[in-house]
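Researcher: Please translate sequence to structure tokens.
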Amino acid sequence: MAKILLIQPNRWGRGITSIWIPSHAGILKSRKHDVKLFDCTFYKNWTENELDFNTQNQQYQPTEYSKLVKYNDSDVFNELQKLVNSFKPDIIFWSAISSHIHGEGEYVNIQYGDMLVEKIFTSAKKIAGGLQPTGDPKNIPIRFPNIDFFIRGESELVLAELADKIDQVRELTTTDGLIWKKDNEVIINKPQQIISDMDVISTYDYSVFDDQIFLRPYNGRVVKGVDYELSRGCVYACSYCVETTIQQYYGFTEITNQGTIKNASAYLRSKSAKRIFQEMKMLNQKYGIEFFRCQDTNFLTIDYNMLNELGELINNSELPIYLYVETRPEGINKSSVELLKKLKVDGVGMGIEVSSEAFRKNNLNRFPAQDKIIEAFSLLKNAGIKRTSYNIIGLPNETEDMIIDTIKFNSILQPDNITVAFYSPYLGTNLQEESEKLGDFNDYEYNVDGQLRTVTKSSNVDKDLLNFYKKNFTKFVREGLEKLDELKKNEIRN
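Model: Translation complete:
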């Protein structure tokens, strides 16, 4: 039996059940390994309190969340050292790929975990995975020299294999999917096989989380919820999206004229309907989970027959649960809305990104027309399903006028919730490479977090202006742009 310490480096100060944690915990425990989790979420000297930040700018509705959770006054570094001393792990692991991809700070967690572990005294093997080593395998080991091994691609089976080998005192460096160093040389092993059948991953184990992690704000209420995945993969190859990094790693590099990958059926994978229903039922009955925040990259491209079977299981049950999903406007029609209702979907998030059709097509490799987006929002509204629009500001070559046009387009859509993210240059994506050439960003950026900050150097729309629109975007959608010039004068330094 090996001992594995998982680290959740979440700095947002609110509960996030990062999907990689229960997926890795489940398979490790199924192989009789000992697993513990150190969760940084509520340490006062670690959190940046994303919830307060985005409530103030009206992205979230106010709740009593902060009164229902207990924050920790202890020093996060000291507490981690205490756990390491008592548990004596063989492996310390953090950061991994799942359907969360970059969401809720996942992209930057490799950096945050390294910040924690570099101050810890331990003989454990320090291992990290996720998007950054997948997208830039040659340079990430140089940027994070304190880490012993990196895992590219999906890491559940790879980490389990490493734990088995430690238990059996076998060589680790022969494992597929690893990046490691020998005499200061970076060694990149061949890719591991893609997990084509998600049911081979043992039941995801959410027992490693403290109970207050399950509390989360949702539409002005505090509910018990989890982040969850039914599937992995996306058919689309948007130029800014980290999904393309994973696609390329597994050899899905050919793109159609409509911005989709060829042979997409081999890349889109899901759990079985019965497996999903049993997990949801267990989480509801054991932990009181009512809200499932499905992080699947594009919900309505999941196999229709599986979703329909799942819908029957959920609809015929008396489980008091509801789902929030993300998809694209192209998939919304009367038939798919009926399916969403059967699945007890309460809310749908869809990427608008920017309002300009030409910019979306030519710069982002996204093709939905304005009328299709408007129709999708209208169909969901008529069905009583809450709608969230996702918008990006600070994209390479985006202008202030384009941001204003996106605000106006949201005013037409009138979404129930509005999310605004700063553009983040994700390693391995086409747009990241372009943004570096333009001089908007460095070849590598630390502290990337699309919800909390922009790291742009662009003079096209500078940091002060982007921060202004992040703060006031929802206000302008709801109240109009009449006071735009006045607010800019008062809030932006000359």
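Researcher: Any highlights?
Model: DSSP finds 18 helices and 16 strands in the chain.
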